[in-house]
Automatic annotation (TrEMBL), chain B:
It catalyses: L-glutamine + H2O = L-glutamate + NH4(+); N(2)-formyl-N(1)-(5-phospho-beta-D-ribosyl)glycinamide + L-glutamine + ATP + H2O = 2-formamido-N(1)-(5-O-phospho-beta-D-ribosyl)acetamidine + L-glutamate + ADP + phosphate + H(+). InterPro entries: Class_I_gatase-like (IPR029062), PRibForGlyAmidine_synth_PurQ (IPR010075). It comes from the Bacteria. This is Phosphoribosylformylglycinamidine synthase subunit PurQ. Its main location: cytoplasm. It comes from Pseudosporangium ferrugineum. The gene is purQ. It holds the Pfam family GATase_5. One of its GO terms (molecular function) is ATP binding.
UniProtKB/TrEMBL annotation, chains C, D:
Keywords: ATP-binding, Cytoplasm, Ligase, Nucleotide-binding, Purine biosynthesis. Part of the phosphoribosylformylglycinamidine synthase complex involved in the purines biosynthetic pathway. Catalyzes the ATP-dependent conversion of formylglycinamide ribonucleotide (FGAR) and glutamine to yield formylglycinamidine ribonucleotide (FGAM) and glutamate. The FGAM synthase complex is composed of three subunits. PurQ produces an ammonia molecule by converting glutamine to glutamate. PurL transfers the ammonia molecule to FGAR to form FGAM in an ATP-dependent manner. This is Phosphoribosylformylglycinamidine synthase subunit PurS. It is an enzyme of class 6 (ligase). It comes from Pseudosporangium ferrugineum. The gene is purS. Signal peptide: none annotated. The lineage of its organism: Bacteria, Bacillati, Actinomycetota, Actinomycetes, Micromonosporales.
Amino acid sequence: MTTQPDTATSGAAPSRGVPTQPPSAAPPGKPSGFAATDVLVNQFDGGPDTVERARNTPEELQPHTELGLKDDEYDRIRQILGRRPTASELAMYSIMWSEHCSYKSSKVHLRQFGEKAPKNTRMLAGIGENAGVVQISDDLAVTFKVESHNHPSFVEPYQGAATGVGGIVRDILAMGARPVAVMDPLRFGAADHPDTARVLPGVVAGIGGYGNCLGLPNIGGEIVFDPCYQGNPLINALSIGVLPVERLQHKEAAGLGNVVVLLGARTGRDGIGGVSVLASATFDEGAEQRRPSVQVGDPFMEKLLIESCLELYDAGLVVGIQDLGGAGLTCALTETAAAAGTGMRVWLERVPLREPSMSPTEILASESQERMLLIVAPEKLDEVLAVAEKWGVWATAIGEVTPSETEGLPGRLVISWNDHVVVDVPPGSLADDGPVYARPIREPADLILLQADRAETLPRPVTSDELRETVLRMIASPNLCDKTWVTEQYDRYVLGNTVLAQPEDAGVLRIDERTGLGVALSVDGNGRYARLDPYQGARLGLAEAYRNVAVTGAEPVAVTDCLNFGSPEDPAVMWQFAEAVRGLADGCQELGIPVTGGNVSFYNQTGAAAIHPTPVVGVLGILQDVARRVPMGFPPPPTADGDLLFVLGT
Amino acid sequence: MRIGVVTFPGSLDDGDAARAVRIAGGEAVRLWHGDADLHGVDAVVLPGGFSYGDALRCGAIARFAPVMETIADAARGGLPVLGICNGFQILCEAHLLPGALTRNQHLHFRNRDQYLRLESTSTAWTTSFTDGQEILIPVKNGEGCYVADQRTLDELEGEGRVVARYVRGNPNGSQRDIAAITNAAGNVVGIMPHPEHAVEALTGPSLDGLGFFTSALRHLAGTAAGGQLTGGAQR
Amino acid sequence: MARVVVDVMLKPEILDPQGQAVANALPRLGVSDVSSVRIGRRIEIEFAGEPDLDTAREIADKLLANPVIEDFSIRVDEPAGDAARMSA
Amino acid sequence: MARVVVDVMLKPEILDPQGQAVANALPRLGVSDVSSVRIGRRIEIEFAGEPDLDTAREIADKLLANPVIEDFSIRVDEPAGDAARMSA
Ligand SMILES: Nc1ncnc2c1ncn2[C@@H]1O[C@H](COP(=O)(O)OP(=O)(O)O)[C@@H](O)[C@H]1O
């Protein structure tokens, strides 16, 4: 059940029913160069580790520690399954229970966003979905979210940043929206450090390369330099999309007998071990060996994926949809099944591969980009394949939805590979029932000293020469100077709805050409404030983004955030995190706008030195008539002749 | 008047070109790369973007799309065709215009508001302008550096086929500051900057881009009434 | 000719969207027996004096190839033999 | 290996800003005896059956090279000999 886009230009008829996977005689998986992959590629007697084999060899030693699972976590897996996990299952648990996917350290704190959220009737989807969705008129909604791609971008700046944009755009797409813009809050080490000269141009070219090729205007972002980010730059990416309210999509794999379809690029050995290792481990040594785990993006394929998904939504052909991001098929299969409470049966040999020798574990763990998972009613399958064919993307039926319970037992996710059953698990155990930690927190020991070193003690410029020198030094400083070198590399015009972009305080987009309805967006954060006081620092980031949106004339209505911190296993970092979340939740409560979604990025550190706690906050506002937006510059004379200037506030 | 806007896989400014046609007072007809039928349009715009991901060279693969074969024939027969950015690259790859567009000399993608000077106002797409008029429209490309051999360049200049030049700075290193050229008949125009992004006060740096689309409508009205295209050589 | 040629190709496991797009276009040219196309870079380094493989290797390693996703090979250029250079 | 290699280089009279940029960066690596760097494309075409030079030449001529700015050369791939392929 595969459409093979053998050529995008020819009108070749879809070739259906062609199995794309070579038969079981495939050569054993060859190591992809990443050490932990060798652990993942677990082959026995020419075949994979099966459920049956796991039952028969209960005492076999498994490399759970190497995969990042603690002893008690491993014991819990054995308890859940009533046996040892297979190699594939072990890989799946290690991925889904990683910090990045399970939010095991942050969950207990993030709850405040829901608990303190003001009453809100605009929010159509919130925390827990791929991205929050906010209704902005009777018939239109927007969805927006900011995410991190910090570690991959340090290893391979161009591809890391590019796939960061690609990933967040798929989140937006998965909600039923057409992505309409991107923003990029960035943090680098010292501007004059040689490694910044490697990382920054690559990151900027990658964000531009992917976003420009996708046809998404870049309407704002941040570029901040600070030595604390030297070994660990922050590459956050935000995307916003627009949807008719009734096109809102869900990830539930509902409907017994519905078909599970993999749409988009073929699967290769990209980023295997990426999520669990890159995003959830300290990033100091071994960077060399991890390199092959970077993903490479293809924005052209993503553009085709966007167009085909939108056509599928509009034709009502999709029951459920989920993007494939950090944890690839593992995450998409378990989350769609768990969300619906159903079971699922998947035949892995049907997955179209770039490299035929991939093992089932590798297929499940691959982070190949530009893929989506669809749940489709069987009678709609042909239409779905035809749309994919039209746009020249692969579409393959790889499985089906099975009962939510049989004989009193909850549904199972059963995955086979050439007649070997390699996975048989309750999907919820992977997606929802991961470990949750209330990590110890302790105020950083140096904080009192740091706070005692007050700005008032700094020398002040007094003479006019000193003042002049100070002003010149400030405007020449990398954090304040002109950012045109970066922003000129981004297309801000494409789609024809950009009303304000760089260097304005907020990006403003026209959403509806007929009514003039528009939105404003700003992302802000200040790691130095947050280092001094994470509670106030987070509130200040929120206040700044809120103000930037408000000054355009928009009414701020919703928040997204990316929380960039050091290791959660360090009580001082965990304290910073807890304080920042409390500050952001309190701030949102005071301002009366909800957090609709976001992302946590831990383990941002070089050796033992954590970055400044860096909560990045995005605020969305609505302009009923976008023509009335207020730009930041003074209108040129003579229009402005005689205008009065006021300072508002304290 | 019906102006077709082609969508290739990877076209990005196709919706914007269609909007510009509408704002200028024309009817925009969306054409699909895989459909060789032009559906009776009176003119065609090849929009900006990254057709086929700009694999190999920009425009190299789009040239072989079924719709392009029809357009190439029709263009040789006088159909007004405007190639914007990627569309310009496609026209060069299809040998409907001479020369080639190569990597920007500074090696970066560059997006800025750019001044141009109109130098040929007798093409199908530029009659709304006055000779020597300076306009401001966005430029945004990574491979917009126009190159051709000296003989071709001299020929373009000699025949008045340089349609527009960059002024107050050359954003990509194009030879002789060339921003737009036309074929000998004046019906096919390729332009690197984006007139379709300067058609509304709210979203563009000016309304200067509108002239390209109103020119085509005027030209079509003229030819419908029996008028003839004078071509670049008459300048 | 004191010339060293460096060929830089994506590692075999890395996605090559360019090659893929070209391969997909071939049927339009009437070509059906091509199974794959990979696109890399060919770099010609001209030395003032003797061609210096070690220097060339260092240049390739530091400037020309991205070791994260690419491999390179390097050789002194042999004068064009069978391979016809065509000025198309 | 049924593989044909097509090398596409900019014509000598066409400016190559990328090659220029690499050449300009060399002194910082301490390299001073390089007189020029040119960057082109290397395309590997894998045939399902026998490598077909004529087909490859046609592909190169129509698609892989733009005759306005580029020349190409074409050959059946000989297995790597002296040229060491380095997995950097
Ligand atoms: N800092 C945060 N603030 C609010 N919501 C968050 C935050 N971090 C994560 N979330 C929410 O938790 C859910 C899971 O996040 P994530 O794993 O990033 O989503 P995805 O599955 O798209 O990768 C999402 O709905 C996200 O919006």
